[in-house]
Amino acid sequence: MTALIRRVPARQLAGYWFILPCLTVTTLFFIVPLFMTIWMSFNQWPLLGHPTFSGFSNYVDLLQDSSFWASLWFTVKYTLVVTPAIFILAFALALLVHRSVGFVGFFRTAYFLPVVIGMTAASLLWTWMFNDQVGIFSAILMDLHLIDEPVQWLAETNSALGSIVVMVLWKAAGFTMVILLVGMQAIPEDLYEAARLDGAGRVQQIRYITIPMMRRTFALALVMSVIGSFLAFEQFYVMTRGGPFNSTITVVHWIYRASFTYFKLGYGAAMSVVLLLILLALSVLQLYLLRDDND
Amino acid sequence: MTISAFVKRLAGVLGTSALVVSANAHAEEISFWVRAADQAFVEPMVKAWNDKHPTKVALTVIPSDDFVTKFGTAVAGGGAPDVVAIDLIFVPAFAQAGQLSDLSAEVKTLPYAKALSPSHMRLGAYNGKQYSVPFSAESSILLYNKQLFKRAGLNPDAPPKTMAEIQAAAKKITALGGGVKGFYFSGACGGCNVFTLTPYVWASGGDVLSADGKKETLDNPALRNTLTMYRQMWTDGMIPGGAKTDNGSNFINPFFTGKIGMMGSGAFSIGLLKKEHPEIEFGVAPLPGAKGGSASFAGGDSIAIPATSKNKKAAWEFITWCLSSDVQIDQFAKGGSIPVRADFADNTYARQDPRVGVVSAAMQSGRTPYSPYFNQLFNDPNGPWLAMIQEAVFGKGVDPAIKDAQGRFQQILGH
């Protein structure tokens, strides 16, 4: 140990001391649990009782578990719907609040506010708004005479998914907006000035300056949004409980179910590992596709 | 704040009662967990105990839906309480996993052991040992609105005696219009429908599981008839639309509006309606079969001592008090529910309301499916039982629903 310290220059050693707190937290709350999960996935690990080593059996079961693949497919569908929706809305919002004009602070705050509400609380709030008896949406549509009787928003597969997408848009667009806003404001103003001198209109400026200059920001926003969508759980657990007809079960919901309804922690761990690998692959792919040409 | 005080507070915040429990081992205190559904009658009961006894009981109320998960996790983490009241159907799973103390010797010392609710005792037994005793009882009955019966030209004192009569009455009541519907059930709640739907099947001579609980027996005319009755009532608009998504949180609320003719419910509705909605004139009747007869689910909670308890003696003392007349009559019967001891069935409170007689009789002849996989099969909101009911009543139809469910039941039971 002393030999090691002697070899490392004092300045460099100080650097290690600085990252120590971060390293400790990461090790304790990420690396150790990660390896525990991987180890767990190679065992039959009942919540009650003792684990027994079982090699790849959980992974073999997983390959044959049509419910797991169905939940994964549903999660992909949800991600494909919700990610572009959030992205487009957030980009529009960011364009709106990008320049410092009157009340812009108010609007930025207003758009961001839903982000700080817990997902479960937000889901409960929206469950109530979607309710056919006391909810506001059916009431408004009935007052406008667009419908004759209240709509059961969460009772049909498509409307249930649609309802949740609307809720998530409201909840998450503000966060993506802030990320995009940061990227937008990092673009030097003189580029726009030059473009204006060349006679570029507002749309052309967005098309030829804003969007190309924001590739890295887009990549970050996209990766975070896709990860968030793949890990969706609370909103479905609270608003549909996976129904109707088990048609809105996300992959995390399925992992929760295997672990805490069936008490099969090893199997839940195996699914978590597979999900982790899928997310890793997806993130690498997105970062590759959206890489800067200068990288 | 000292470090130990901080740790205790942290443990409390995290909900890991392990540290708290070990700290309490020295104090005269036993911890007791119940599900939220029991809160109303357990809180006054615990207070009554604490007022009279030096050993204090610390009550924790767990959300009903999360009870199995929370208790299972606590058991696994070594933080289980000293006494637990569990929905009786979950006792086999925990007994099988070796998480409950063997109470066989203690039960033998009870002079009234033979009078204890037979369903509770059967589900509390595993491999010849007794792991739990009855705590509270709940039977299923048909709850009906006498005012709506009168308005629809039906005799309020002659409730339906067959399933066909239920359907006919529901039709007449729905015809009153103005948002009045003949029938209600929680269509997205598995547990609720074991309680209120299987009695029709039993009363018609069918069952959902074999007697030993090892096989599904879903392919039978009794279940097919029952689901068909529900489906017809749904398609004919006799059931409010909200039934489809009710996960049990609205179990009885629609009846409070006075716009529901009939619904399957439990003994608890008598006390609740008398107290909260005296304006509704209601009757209770046994749940009938296709050609008459009747059946009930024998439900409620069993009480047990987790294997890890360090206060087993005090815990047992508390349990025997729960079975005494102090609790079963002066608390439970007084509040409108049924005692778990047959020798207490005839009591002052039961004599005051003939409706209590109906629920007591239902409890005595009630049935409970036995399976260590009950949670996965019946209570899981994504499990095969609920999927079957949803597909049969609201979805693609009775026959395909039963066929799908057979495979998924066997998959779970085969494990």
Coarse shape of chain B:
globular
Q: In oligomeric terms, what are we looking at? A: heterodimer
Strand count of chain A: 2
Q: Give the amount of beta strand of chain B, in percent.
A: 15-25%
> What string gives the helices and strands of chain A in order?
HHEEHHHHHHHHHHHH
Helix content of chain B: 40-55%
Structural class of chain A: mainly alpha
Spatial shape of chain A:
flat
Mean pLDDT of chain A, to the nearest integer, reads 89
β-sheet strand percentage of chain A: under 5%
What is the averaged pLDDT score of chain B? 88
Write down the Rg of chain B. 22 Å
The number of helical segments of chain B is 21
Family (chain B): Belongs to the bacterial solute-binding protein 1 family.
Keywords (chain B): Signal, Transport
Pfam family, one (chain B): SBP_bac_1
Signal peptide (chain B): 1-27
Structure description:
The complex is a heterodimer of chains A (295) and B (415). Chain A is mainly alpha-helical and 295 residues long. Chain A is built from 14 helices and 2 strands, in the order ααββαααααααααααα. The longest helix of chain A is centred in the N-terminal third of the chain and has 32 residues, at 10-41. Chain B is of the alpha/beta class. Chain B has helices at 3-14, 18-24, 39-52, 67-76, 91-96, 104-108, 118-124, 146-151, 163-174, 190-196, 198-203, 221-235, 253-256, 268-276, 312-322, 325-333, 348-352, 354-364, 374-379, 384-393, 398-413; strands at 29-35, 56-62, 83-87, 125-126, 129-130, 133-145, 181-184, 260-266, 282-285, 287-289, 292-295, 298-304. In chain B, strands 1, 2, 3, 6, 7, 8, 9 and 12 form an 8-stranded mixed β-sheet that branches. A two-stranded antiparallel ribbon of chain B has the order 4-5. A two-stranded antiparallel ribbon of chain B has the order 10-11. In chain B, α20 runs antiparallel to α21. Mean pLDDT of chain B is 88; it is low at 1-26. The chains are: A mainly alpha (295), B alpha/beta (415). The interface between A and B is medium-sized, with 24 and 27 residues.
